[in-house]
Amino acid sequence: MSLGARAQSRVRAARGPGLDPARIPHPSTKAQTAPPLERLLKQRLVIPELCVQVVNGGYTSWSSWGTCSVTCASGIWTRSRSCSNPAPQHKGADCTSLGAATETSSCNTGIMCPSEYARMLILMLIVDKS
């Protein structure tokens, strides 16, 4: 098979949906090497098979404060947020550098606990007798 016949068969084989025979290099031309990946990335060319977008995580809004940890006297309540707005992807940073995922605060129910109430009554009786 001659060089011309090889080139023609290559063109014929390349015909099909989405293929342009004019873009196939002739065998007599120098083969061009593909540019290095670093250069492609610097030029911001998108090659879905090779490039993915790094996504750093972000927190959601804070949840509402939960219920107080006690039913009388003082306790603690908590609220939280999650690292899913957006979630980290493709080796993106998690949310640790953005602060804590939970927050606590003291709460006071305004109700005296029975043991404190009993102690106070005893003290009142002692003071009242004196």
TrEMBL record:
SUPFAM superfamilies: TSP-1 type 1 repeat (SSF82895). Gene3D superfamilies: Thrombospondin type-1 (TSP1) repeat. It holds the Pfam family TSP_1. Its main location: secreted. Transmembrane segments: none annotated. Coiled coil: none annotated. Keywords: Disulfide bond, Repeat, Secreted, Signal. Residues 1-35 are annotated as: Disordered. InterPro entries: Compl_asym_regulator, TSP1_rpt, TSP1_rpt_sf. It is found in: Secreted. This is Uncharacterized protein. It comes from Dreissena polymorpha. The lineage of its organism: Eukaryota, Metazoa, Spiralia, Lophotrochozoa, Mollusca.
